[in-house]
Amino acid sequence: MSTATAEHGHEGQGHDAHGHHEPQNFFLKYFWSTDHKIIGMQYLFTGLAMAVVGGFAVYAFRMQLAFPGMSVPGWGRVTATDYNALVTTHGSVMIFWVAMPVLIAALGNYLIPLMIGCDDMVFPRLNRLSYQLFLLSIVVLFMSFYAQGGGFGGAWTSYPPLAAKAEYNLTPAGAPLWLLAVALEFAAFLLGGINFVTTVMNSRAPGMKMFDIPMVIWMIIIASIMFMASVGPLVAGAVMLFFDQTLGTGFFDPNQGGDPVLWQHLFWFFGHPEVYVVLLPAMGIVAEVVTTFARKKLFAYKTVLYTAVGTGVLGFFVWAHHQFIAGIDPRMANIFSVTTLLISIPVAEMCFVYIATLYGGSIRLTTPMLWALAFIGEFLIGGVTGIFLGASGADIYFHDTYFVIAHFHYTFFPIAFIAVFAAMTYWFPKMFGRYMNEAWGKVHFWGTIIPFNFIFIPLFLLGARGDHRRIYDYTHFPDLMKPGMQDLRILATLALVTLLAFQLVFVVNFFLSMFRGKKAEANPWKANTLEWVAPSPPPHGNFPEGLPNVYRGPYEFSHPDRQEDYWPQNVAS
Amino acid sequence: MEAVVTNPVPERRKPVVPSAVLGTLIFVIAEVMFFAGLISAHTISRAGSLPGLWPMPGQPTLPAEATALNTVLLLLSGAVLFFGYRLWKKQSPVAHWVTLAAWGLGAAFVALQGVEWVALLSQGLTLRSSPLGSFFYLIVGGHAVHALAALVAMFWAWMQMARGQLTSGFFFGVQTFWYFVVLMWPVIYARVYF
Amino acid sequence: MNQLVLLACAVCGAGEDRASGALLVMTIIISLLPLGMMGGLIGYFVYQSRKGDQAAEDAK
Lengths: 573, 194, 60
Hints:
The structure holds three protein chains of three kinds. By secondary structure, chain A is an all-alpha fold. Chain A contains 16 helices and two strands. In chain A, strands 1-2 form a two-stranded antiparallel sheet. Chain A starts with a helix and ends in a 57-residue tail after the last helix. By secondary structure, chain C is mainly α. Chain C is built from two helices and no strands. The mean pLDDT of chain C is 80. Chains A and B meet through helix 7, helix 8 and helix 9 of A and helix 1 and helix 4 of B.
């Protein structure tokens, strides 16, 4: 096999390890493997473990907001410094160490070679290095928590001068370590992204044309390209901020001739495309799940693909909507208002395509389907409230209130959790060769969706009343305490605790099903894409009966000429 | 495992663009964006400063004329490397000497930049003395780091070429990275030194 | 602190047309640059694949 791959212009590296001998040693197999499935699992489990860290942080600071001054079980009294560090940890962990690794790295690594029908990534050793850098970034992040002065407390956006000056943020070691961790994480995803794009372009199964690639793969590719094209200026800004923190330069310090708003431009130049970087894979997951469980062809494959590209292009022209009140030129604010409202069109179009796919389908309400449907519904609420914030006039009022928090959690929670749960319940039989328990899956679904709405609808109401998002203890501002607002905060916090408690159902179901679940066949959902051709779980090299040949697109369900209602991509007729 | 292969391996897709080429190009695009971020930050900071204060009175002006020589050396190095590649493709026996010459020109560029830095530091332009100094050392230093990394890779490629073991994928990666270093420099030179 | 350093303040001229013009120009460049480069790469890819298809047909 190794000679064959070398002949065919593949990068020889790592491929020689395939086929003949699998690593036997536990350490070599699970920690030093170049197999894309193992690396995908490593990213998945690390990402989920980090979700526990992010979830614990939000629990501690929401308890403080609901019951100011109380001793939070498991943490103790939340001081103002703790509060800042917890908010920062929650934001940065959930975005950089949960959403990115799970949606892009874990699913990308696991699914790309399986769904395009090849045995591994093009650069397997680069892939392993990517995960090792990612793990190192987590080690550095944890170091920052225990450094002198505690973890960084400048919010995930890390605005100077708060982030740049130790005399303001009081974390002389935590701030640079946090920045270093983020930089390492970017390096990891840069390597991963190069790998993804190259693999999909060069290793597709024979016969798989551009429009035969499953939508989730396209979405991961477009997201990776967006990430790699936008991350450069942020890394440039991060180096400048790091120099400000450690060497005493003044890039962002007006006292030394610097410009603090410059950081905001460099950060959001990456930060806003990042939103679409995580959105697109989630949209792709929903496309796979909706078509499989509606037993219907995706309503408009090319439209979804082109709107995704359109989202990617427009995504580079919206970033300054985060800075409407940061003193930018009002003429620029006008332009960015228009582009921000425009970008809702392609995103809404994707949602409409999924709804059109459902129309007239034979819908099966399995757990993954419930998650996918919930994604469409909940994400639409997030998108619609975004219109309020995108209009620069309304944003002046809403800026820095809980309305913003509720808006982006209505987009981000569906992306990072609802879509991820859809993906995990959908691909679980493939990953572990066993079914997840449906009944407990549905309990977990309702136990997550209902509290989720009870967390963030109160926050919309609070934000519309002007509740400021950066106030740690409202009892210090009695004249800002309007009647009824504290009740809404308590309601949101109790709903949060309920939501977190229901995640235990998922964890137990996940691990019990992994070892005790009903055995799953190769194609349990009767889906068309190539990963269901491989045995469950797929062995080293993925396709023991030879790499598949592709004859048609991925969504040929309920074809009138066929007896079965599905038509796998690799079946000739 | 080979015994059950029903789909003969020769049917595998022939890459449209070799993987090493595609991977390197994407990496270079990300790197260009890094320098685009630095240069745009420099341009905006500079445009925001009050007239007559960039560079600040009493601080040295950057030696644009002396650096023109370095710029020529670096561009020449890029051209020589391309010539070396053409020779290597024709399996010329002198190809590796031409590649070494390109390496030497690149190394001379880095060395002359180092001499320039020492002179500027002694004249009082430091990382903290002014925004001009901060941006100068950051951008030029960032370029120098890339140049040094590329020189190490190019030396490695030369050693392999001399032994006749150089793979085209690796040489392509080294070349692309070096051309990126070479072509980035005139932009930096035009924006920072003038 | 060095008095001259204060004079080089990057935000002092921020309201002037010169500074906002620079910001606008850099905004345009930095937004179009990644799209242009990625577009170029995709164009190169499509060109190469068309050339490959042509060669395959000529071989037949």
